Known about the structure:
By secondary structure, the protein is of the alpha+beta class. It contains 31 helices and 23 strands.
Amino acid sequence: MQIDKKTSLRFVAFAMFVIISFSVLIGGLYNLQIENADKYQQDAGNKSAKTLRITGKRGMITDIDSVVLAMSEDVFNVTFQRNMTQNSEKDYKAFTTSILETIKIVEEYGGEIKNKFVIERDPKTQEWVFNFGKGISERAWEIRSQQWHANHFISAESEKFNTAEKCYNHLVDLYDIRSRGIDEETTLKVLAIYSDMQMNLFNSIPIVIAEDIPFAAVSEITGRKMMLPGIDIAVGEKRIYPRNNMASQVVGYVGKISDADNYYEQLKPLGYALNDTIGKEGIEKSMENWLTPNITSRQGSRLMEVDRSGKLTRQISYTPPQNGNNVKLTLNAAYQQIAEQAIASNVAHTRGVQEKKLVNMDWLEKYRDRLETRDFDKYPMRLAEKGAMMVVDVNTGRVLAMAQYPNYDSNALTAGGQAAIPYLMDERKMMRNLCIQERAEPGSIFKMVTAFAALTSGELTVNETISDEGPYKRFTNNEADAPVCWINKNARWKHANQTIIQGIKNSCNYFFYELAGRLYGDTGTNRLYKYAAQMGLTTKTGLQLPNELRSIVGNQTSLYDQNVSLQEQETSVPILVAASLKKHLKNIGASYGISYQEERLDSCIKKLMDMAVNTHSDGWVAAARPILMSELNMTRDMVYQRVIMQDIWVYLNDIKWGGSMEVQMGIGQSITLLTPAAVARYALAIANGGKVYNLSIIDSVVSPEGEILNKYEPTLFGELKDADQFLPYIREGMKGVVDADQGGTAGRYFSSGWKYVDNLWAKTGTSQITIGGVQLDVENNGWFIAITPFETPAEIAVVTLIPNGFSGGESVLAAKDFITWWMDNRTKQASDIQVVPGNELMP
Length: 843
């Protein structure tokens, strides 16, 4: 086949193109691998890549209507950085001058240097000492010491650097500080900045030396940047709480990772850096995994080229970080505001009533003997100074308000330092969430448990009547020891022929002694405890908050559990009994010239206490004798002495559950201790007809893009059997409590024409408190349960507790104020209700 001339030229052109291309390629390879091989090899050795960790913002916490309770905002931080090659005398002189100038600027504008040096003066000796952390183990101290010395190129074994003072002097000279003539405080600030940089030198990133500085300081530092080597301005993140004190014990606060947070075991494996911020209390803590941007799966990264000196030269790649998720609470900000105002006002009012009572001559005369007996230096008077209040949706268990007084400013706790000290040092222990961590004897608010248990078990019929007959002597033959009702004996006729409705309305103690006695019976059943458990009073409530305490309802295991140690007992009673027994046995031994070993005493006491639980009290003395003889080598004569055995019997009686304790539990006394949260769950079960819901304070978790990641639906703890048959009678009794015309125990607090009294059913509770062996009525706990409406199905339950609040009646005011506001506004839309100023809504 003949190839024409035009096609031939094309082949020639293509061949020439291929030849030229290969020539260029071969020339490039020759230049790379032969002619300039040494140069490129040196450049490659001088550069490496480093991945920088990037995090987004922490998620927001909002109320149910997206009112922001916690958020993060951008702030300006001052940073400092030097690289590994900048270590000459000239470099240090320039850096120290720069650091000193920066400190001056920051402090002139009200900022402060955040860095702390590990060398400090001992407060007692004023000598220089190391401080690598408070309360850490010896191993942790050793590791931190080794890291610090290594990063500062100081040998701890060298005689030249074997003390903190020698290290201090070395660094002062190294960084050209001594010649500056500055004070010791400023010297420590400069050393702290250098030290933190040295500890992070190999990370190739700057350290923060001042946070959230004002814009005026930013402008000055930026304008003088050329004269401040190593200093720069960076955008950081600050956690803020726009509502300041609102729901502070619920929302909580954040802080830097500390020794107590188990960083290496728990946080580092998740991706946290040691200088990250985490939730310390409240929702910030319990929902940390949802809120944080610091876990590995949400981190971004920046791959950077780094030269031999450690300087970042260029960005190779970038992966954006993800922000933390937002947590929406069930709380309503408007409800919360009113509840906080109401409980604060109630506490102040109650305190005023108590202080007037203390100077009342009739009261002083009535309690003269007790006042003279009380050692007030050791046991000072306790009056109302704090209170808790919860509002719950009775048909879902959702918490609408969780208020307490006093509360703290979450911004101050997050800032730390001097701002946090007043709250941390307050004797009222303001860090505690009283709604889940304050346990108190419930008093008469427990009587609905006793009533429901007696009705359901058939120990009481709805039409049966019981009259107050004075001392209740079923479980004691000594009338002086028999419990009596609170009403004066001359007015007992008012508590005659009471049905369950009148028993609750009158809050007659004798009525509920009788019910508890019937439930306990002659064989000692624990039916009352079981009904309390069914109503949610013996377990945690399900709230998504940290450190909730479980309520305690009296029974043998709650009083003394022989299967756990003294330190694990639910109450302090076993510890006190063991201490009393030990003191008694030591005194016996001393009278015979015998000294018992602690181990033998502890073993003997444990066996005595276990014996008391498993043996009827009539057989204690006989059963205790062989224990004393075998464990302590007591003689037969010793164990048959009345003076020895009688006191042992008395002490053991305090850990043996019996009928006398059961009837006290029937009116909410004995060792029963409930939290407001547990009472709220119990109250909503009464209100909704028998459904015991777990409480919830989280509505949902929402992604930064607005997607609902987790919706928290109501969960049922259990249902009360026969509730529809018997709860209506309890409901009627509670309605009578607030009826002044019927003589209800709380009627006088609603007798002034309160417009919503017909829509309220409630119960007061006053629990007696013994302090220093003395009972004074002004120190009693005050409880109040209120449910509304009455004429239509109940919607909310309100629970208030004022520890040492005088009486249940005195705790009525907060609930009354809240319900007045709620009823006035219940028909309004959320947008029509005024919310506290400064509202910021979730975008």
